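Record type: monomer structure entry
Structure origin: computed from sequence
Chain ID: A
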Amino acid sequence: MTNNQLDSIDISILEQLKDDGRRSFADIAADLDVSAGTIRNRIKRLEDEGILKFIGLVNPNHLNLGSYASVFIRVNPTQRIPQVIEALSEHSEVNFLASIAGDYHLHVDLLCTDNDHFMRFMRDHIYTIEGIVDTKTSVVLQVHKYGMSDLGMLIESAKNS
C-alpha cells in the first residue's frame, strides 16, 4: 500500500495515534463511528505494511540529556558511506541517521548528556571514522516543536503533486 491508498479512516487513525499512541481501539472507533474490530484490523494492516510502528518517545530534558546536535557529514570516497553508516549506527548517542542530498552525504542527530559528552563523542568517534572528511555541526539551543505534522494534510499534498 502507498500513501495514495490510505483512505480517510486510515489517516484519522494515524492522526489520533500521533497524538496518543496508547489510545484504545474502542476510543478511536467511537471517535470515528466505526467498530473496534475495524480499528484493530486497520492498525494491524498499517503495521504489517510498515506504515505504522509504535515507539515510546522520551523527553530528553527529563533524563539529563541536555546536549542535542545535528551533524552533517561528507564522506570520501563515497563508496565508504555504507561503512560510515554502520559505524555510526552502533552508538546510542546517534538518535537519527539519514542519507541526504546536497553538499553532505549524511545527517546525524546526536543526543548527549552535556556539551563535554558531545565534544568527546565527536573527537573519539565521529572524527575517527575512516572516510569522514568534513562535518558541519549545529548545536540545538532550545526545542520549540517536537513531533509529527498534520499527517492528513501531508498525505493529501503528496497525492496532488
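Annotation 1: The beta strands are 67-75, 94-99, 106-112, 132-140.
Annotation 2: The mean pLDDT is 87.
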